[in-house]
Amino acid sequence: MNLTVNGVEHDVASAPLTSLLDVLREELGITSPKAGCEQGGCGACTVLVDGEARRSCLLPVGALDGAEVTTVEGLGTPERLSTVQLAFTHHYAAQCGFCTSGMLLAAHAYVEHGGSDDRAEITEALGGHVCRCTGYVKIIEAVAAAARGDSFDLETTAASPGMTNIGGVR
Amino acid sequence: MTASADVLLPRSPDEAVEAFGDGSDVTVIGGGTIVLPEITYGRLRPTRAIILTAADLAGVKRDGTTVTVGATTPVAELVDLPAPVGPCAANVADGEIRGQATLGGNLCAGEGAGAPRGDLQGALLAVDAVARSAGAGGERTEPLADFLANRRGRLLLDVSFDAPAAGAFVALDRPHTHEYTTMAVSVARRPDGTVRIAVTGAGTHGQRLPSAEAAAGDPAAAGEAALADVAPQDDALASSWYRTKTLPVLVRRALAELKEAS
Questions:
Q1: Which residue in chain A has the smallest CA separation from B54?
Q2: Which of A65, B84, B142, B255 has its CA 20 to 30 A from that of A75?
Q3: How do residues A29-85 score in pLDDT, each as one tens digit?
Q4: Is A7 found in the same domain as A65?
Q5: Does A82 touch chain B (CB under 8 A)?
């Protein structure tokens, strides 16, 4: 069966009941989706399947013939980060990083689908994602900034560590 | 191991029914949200599996006030349906799960060891839904309560119901990454004025609460009466004792909301 991951077509050899997560990590060596709980509870494995945020641990690869999958490796490059990646960087929205790839893809889908910078809506959109560092405030600020279309100059980010847009939270 | 499983991908409802046969020794996969972790963790080792993704069993159809929902319709597509069904669907897990989980999985999955499954069962019982299914003996259409009691060996095709005059949904959730539904009560007022009350999470599957329905005019009395209809379980989300204390409150609140919605 065929799977297009980050624009590259793959002929997948794994058994059809293998999770997409295992195919990505074990067969294709794409390791940004994390194996957290592997039962749909944590969101660390979220990828985009045909543009929609989905838990890759819950999808049997046999159901995905011909699907287009996007992982963080396909979002942007170190030289040219995507909007949500820039926003996460500027707002220091990553701590240990384990949840970050799932958060980024959920945030990317939210912004792409026209999501606003409303906190309640962002919280709902990221509702399936756990950050065990509990760094939610900065993550939500980053998604709000990306949704607003804020522009970021990462040259100055280091000099003003995320304190410019923190919406009253200290 | 999964490598030895014979996996079928039917491309039409007829192919799905044929692949399912009498349902013996078949693992049916709709969205995969319940089944796949079981396979990944090795608790379930299917010899034969059917993936329904391409079987053309999804979609919501409306004909006048009658709503028909295909078995593989994602829960997300039920969110805009009339109460109690819509609010109940919106209460399931989180957006990513709702986009993937199906009506059929929600109604057909076996009892969960750690937490109740089948949030939609109560809401659909409250609107007198009927289930159309295939399996040994051919296709049949029956009240959802009968289907739930004998769902092993059946392949759900769709569920239909008439939109109620008014409805309400009240849930007791337990926060996790997404909120698991410990117990939920759905109420609906039929066009003839009678009230249906059903619960999810007070037994092995969703059930109507006839004693509460008989007392529906008095919410507090209906709440207490509901206890005669259930035998709540202990599980990872709540004890039987806690459920016994909570059910009357949920029934009372749901009936109060129904009064406001009417």
A1: A63
A2: A65
A3: 999 999 999 999 999 999 999 999 999 999 999 999 999 999 999 999 988 999 999
A4: yes
A5: no
Residues 6+ apart with CB under 8 A from B64: none
- Selected for mutation to probe chain A from B39, B102, B177 (highest A CB count within 10 Å) is B177
CB pair distance less than 8 Å for B33 and A124: no
Residue in chain B closest to A22 (alpha carbons) equals B40
CB pairs below 8 Å between A and B: how many? 95
Per-residue pLDDT reduced to its tens digit, B80-110: 999 999 999 999 999 999 999 999 999 998 7
Domain of residue A26, residue span:
2-74
Task: Show residues of chain B in contact with A57, CB under 8 Å.
Answer: 36-37, 40
Q: What is the third-level CATH fold of B166-261?
A: Enolase-like; domain 1 (3.30.390)
Q: What is the ipTM of this complex?
A: 0.93
